[in-house]
Design brief:
four-stranded antiparallel β-sheet; about 350 residues; WD40_PAC1; about 45% strand; 1 helix; WD_repeat_MORG1; 31 strands; mainly beta; WD repeat domain-containing protein 83
């Protein structure tokens, strides 16, 4: 729920990878789901007021509010062309929205418990939703039928998060603790038939990362030896990134499970916190319980930036798909960070003239 105003702030530039605040709306979120749109021009936020809100990133203004859920909205996603939204809620439903009109296109029911996460496939022809009931359900957005076209029920506990890339879906299970797990999903369409091939990465409190490839009928397991809070793929699809409760982020080779890098210094002991890679896979970023976002060089493993977000736990983050911009969430406050513009020769001349 957005209830505040935007506060432009400027921080000093500690490194070349600086991320000063662009604006910071205040949201009532628990936990605070937030994400960039596919093109990075818009921000989606969910709230306990049963609504989701669409914001302009460049202007920092609220564009539209979408209301229709019976309880708090837990997650939302936008289609690649920004024409549709999907959202999920504690009311056990998934809703497909028309962005322009704000109207409900369809309300999908079938989950036995609250729906924690939702996302479109790349073409926005399928919505995938994960629930506390332990299933991921796949919904055809073009079908007249309201039943899921496939149910993935491999999870032993509630599904807490999912993420879809071009060919893959990341999702996972959560027991009584607030952890997240992830898989990968491949969707291939043939005329009106949907063929689903699942290559999945899952995480559980046993400290193992599981990757399922149903095309080959294989299961690959990597042992991390610590409960894993977040898993994601690199942009090139060759690596997986995991964060765990031993305050370590690890980069693994997806095919062999070889450890390629470890990133430490942040604090992650008792919260489900996010990690991610920058849009070009050059940096690793992680939330932290000490109020900072940590940013490491992917290859060297050295800490490049310790970004001061606030005094509480940084709960969520999302990196812009193509630019050096970052979303962070802390106690319901969402901030958009962007790289400082480089100083040009003309700027230097102007400053020198002003001093003269």
């Amino acid at each position: 729920r957005v209830s505040g105003v935007f506060h432009p702030l400027i921080f000093s530039r500690p490194t070349s990878f600086s991320l000063p605040v662009s604006f910071s709306p205040t949201l009532s979120l628990s936990p605070p789901p937030l994400s960039f749109s596919a093109d990075g021009n818009y921000l989606l936020s969910c709230g306990s007021d049963k609504s989701l809100k669409l914001w302009s990133v460049s202007r920092g203004t609220l564009l539209k509010t979408y209301s229709g859920h019976g309880y708090e909205v837990l997650d939302a996603d936008g289609s690649y062309d920004n024409s549709q939204l999907c959202s999920c809620s504690s009311d056990k439903t998934v809703i497909l929205w028309d962005v322009a009109t704000g109207q409900v296109t369809r309300k999908l029911r079938g989950h036995a418990g609250k729906v924690n996460c939702v996302q479109f496939n790349e073409e926005a022809t399928v919505i995938l939703s994960g629930s506390i009931d332990g299933t991921v359900r796949c919904w055809d957005t073009r079908s007249r039928k309201f039943d899921p076209i496939q149910i993935l029920d491999e999870a032993q506990d509630g599904v807490s998060s999912l993420k879809v890339s071009e060919h893959e879906l990341l999702t996972g299970s959560v027991p009584s603790l607030n952890f997240s797990v992830h898989f990968s999903f491949i969707l291939i369409e043939e005329s009106s038939k949907h063929l689903f091939y699942l290559m999945s990465i899952s995480r559980s409190v046993d400290g193992r990362v599981r990757r399922y490839d149903l095309r080959m009928g294989q299961l690959h397991v990597d042992f991390i030896n610590s409960p894993i809070t977040c898993v994601c793929f690199s942009a090139d699809g060759q690596c997986t990134l995991t964060s765990s409760l031993d305050s370590t982020v690890r980069l693994l080779d997806k095919s062999t499970g070889e450890m390629l890098g470890e990133y430490t210094g942040h604090k992650m002991k008792g919260y489900k916190l996010d990690c991610c890679l920058s849009s070009k896979d050059t940096h690793v970023l992680s939330c932290s319980e000490d109020g900072h976002v940590y940013c490491w060089d992917l290859v060297e493993g050295s800490l490049m930036l310790k970004l001061p977000v606030g005094k509480a736990v940084v709960q969520s983050l999302s990196f812009h798909p193509s630019e050096t911009r970052l979303l962070t969430a802390m106690e319901g406050r969402v901030q958009v960070w962007g790289a400082e513009p480089e100083e040009t020769e003309e700027d230097v001349v102007v400053v020198q003239q002003e001093k003269a």
